[in-house]
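Example 265, ligand fe (ii) ion.
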Amino acid sequence: MSDPDLVDLHCHFVPGVDDGARDVEEAMAQLIECERSGIRTVVTTPHLAASAARGPWRDGIEDAFAELAAVASRDCPAVTLGRSFEFRLDDPDADLSDRSIGLGDGGGLLVEFPMLAMPAYPDRMLDVVLAADWIPVLAHPERYAGIERAYGWIGAWREKGALMCVNAGSLWGEHGGEALRVARRMLGDGSVDLIASDNHARPSRAATVRQAWDYLKEAGCEEQATLLTAVNPAAVLSGSRLMGVPPCEPRSGWVDRLRRLVTGG
Ligand SMILES: [Fe+2]
């Protein structure tokens, strides 16, 4: 089986607008690595708080993205670069009427809960997104503090129609033990819909979907790797139906082996 065209739906490459790439050079270093490693589509998703979405902050993002896109089209022609947002749900009256904030033309919107914590009202947080006729694509569900004890919410959110987009780095512990355990549990019961990088163009936050694909393949889950990092992300961008992802039961000891691959230790 040849390697698939990988798709990254979540990263922070727009220079100088959030805690991701600080300048065009840092962003281009990541995009060049994407091109080299077979990632063909990158949608960069700067943070945008619902409470700030009506302000002038967004104009700076669009200008910075245009500057990056001009350089990328010249120096990284094999990568299709798009812009969306990682929308922080910090305002129950969020204005979600602007259809240009979504992921491609597929009707999906990347969202996150504030403070990397389980929200006080987990049953209602995604309702505002659904009510505005978006498909919520929940960023890093495995990272919210308390999710391990409240694991049932992952199924409940999926029941509502939300998609679970796990961070690549969580697979090998980049975000700590709870995120690692929850990501593995989600893989094991087939409740991961997508994997994205959440690459921040910093040495400690530069995981890629290529690494995730390699590691899942190494773990004996090549079919799931392709669905999670290529087929389903492409479907989100085009508005096609996502494929069900079979449970991935990694071989015993795989996390330790993969951690050694990552760290060289
Ligand atoms: Fe992010």
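Summary: The chain is about 35% helix and 15% strand.
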